[in-house]
């Protein structure tokens, strides 16, 4: 999967405001740009407001940039975060030291691996 993220944008209040026109659930990659190349450091998601989640990351000690995408639902945000986590090398290469977690009340499965166990199609149908 090639990420469908837009950007990179500078991780500032103005950068977030310019990047996210329609707020909602979404996923993002944080990193830095060197010689025009975006290097991913970590990935994350917002189940309700991507704008708010990214604004909470502004002011870090590092000069970061981000790429992001808004999606239709929290489930889609989870799926995209998982896909990004795997696409960019997982815990081996990212600052994320663990697989993305699903909301505690959900039975969502990673679209890329069996981290949450084997797919139980009968359970998904309930």
Structural commentary:
This protein is of the alpha+beta class. The chain has one domain (6-125). 29% of the residues lie in helices and 24% in strands. It contains five helices and four strands. Strands 1-4-2-3 form a four-stranded antiparallel β-sheet. A hairpin with a 2-residue loop joins strand 2 (26-34) and strand 3 (37-46). The longest helix is centred in the middle third of the chain and has 14 residues, at 74-87. It is globular and about 40 Å long. The two termini are 29 Å apart. The mean pLDDT is 89.
Over the alpha carbons, how many angstroms does the gyration radius reach? 15 Å
Find the structural class using helix and strand composition: alpha+beta
> Main beta sheet: strand number and arrangement?
4 strands, antiparallel
Strand order of the largest sheet: 1-4-2-3
Tell me, what's the shape?
globular
Q: Give the low-pLDDT segments.
A: none
- Tell me the helix content: 25-40%
Strand content: 15-25%
Counted up, domains total 1
CA(first)-CA(last) distance: 29 Å
SSE series: EHEEHEHHH
Instruction: Give the total of beta strands.
Output: 4
Mean pLDDT score, rounded?
89
